[in-house]
Amino acid sequence: MESKSMKQCKICEEWKTEGIYLFISFICSNCEKEILETDPTDERYQYYVDRLRRSQAPKNLLIQ
Amino acid sequence: MKRVWYRIKNIFLSIIIKFKRDPDEIYYIGGSEALPPPLSKEEEKEMLDLVAEGNPKGKSKLIEHNLRLVVYIAKKFENTGIHIEDLISIGSIGLIKAVNTFNPEKNIKLATYASRCIENEILMYLRRNNKRKTEISFDEPLNVDWDGNELLLSDVLGTDENIITKDLDLTVDKNLLKSALSKLSGREKQIMEMRFGLRGNSEQTQKDVAEQLGISQSYISRLEKKIIKRLKREFNKMV
């Protein structure tokens, strides 16, 4: 059973306590640090873009 | 006192968001929940102080309340061929970087700094993407048959079959020709060399050769036919 303060990271999908919220998506501190160090020219960058996109629901595109 | 008031305001906002009672809002991809409005100057200062203390809540709030900026900037790049969801993800990464690297002591607003970071992030991504447009993978499927088998680029790539033997064949042919030519008389050999540029010179017309040797062109033509026939016989003997 996960502790109440544990949240699942949208990037690595691990359960962590420390991190930030990107509105409704939780990003753990480790992934946040990796994102900060990753440049759009890096191979790994697309992975983060895909993970963040996956955490969105395309059908609910409600931007005015 | 300010902090208590801020908390009450936040709880109130959350309740509004939960029951979706505010129709005049910008929404984020990921649900029907409206994006929070930008923070006031005081609220922003308060959150920046929290960030300075190392409190992640401050960071989250700053990100959350600047997401409208991400959506606004991402929409400007919609005509680039990159999907809006990707643009928002990239812009969000830019915003995270902005909040992490923002220095409140510098005379610049967070929103101004964040806008630059978000736009830069998207522009860098687009530049990388444009470079890669010209690249293609060996595993790129070109076609799929009725059974679902993919025809990959690597399946159709290759070199000419004779790429290795081509040079060897040429050397052998040259030697055969040299050997066949050695069977000809001096004059016959000279005519062939002049006509076909066999000694590294350029090829000459029958007329040119005839003029140089002081004989008629028709005679050169007859001789040439005769010599070629003979060379063919010599080749057949050798092969």
Automatic annotation (TrEMBL), chain A:
This is Inhibitor of sigma-G Gin. It comes from the Bacteria. It comes from Tenuibacillus multivorans.
From TrEMBL, chain B:
GO terms for molecular function: DNA binding; sigma factor activity. InterPro entries: Cro/C1-type_HTH, RNA_pol_sigma-70_dom, RNA_pol_sigma-E, RNA_pol_sigma70, RNA_pol_sigma70_r2, RNA_pol_sigma70_r4, RNA_pol_sigma_r2, RNA_pol_sigma_r3/r4-like. Residues 205-225 form the HTH cro/C1-type domain. The keyword Transcription regulation applies. Gene3D superfamilies: 1.20.120.1810, Winged helix-like DNA-binding domain superfamily/Winged helix DNA-binding domain. Pfam families: Sigma70_r2, Sigma70_r4. Keywords: DNA-binding, Sigma factor, Sporulation, Transcription, Transcription regulation. The keyword Transcription regulation applies. GO terms for biological process: DNA-templated transcription initiation; sporulation resulting in formation of a cellular spore. Belongs to the sigma-70 factor family. Sigma factors are initiation factors that promote the attachment of RNA polymerase to specific initiation sites and are then released. This is RNA polymerase sigma factor. It comes from Tenuibacillus multivorans.
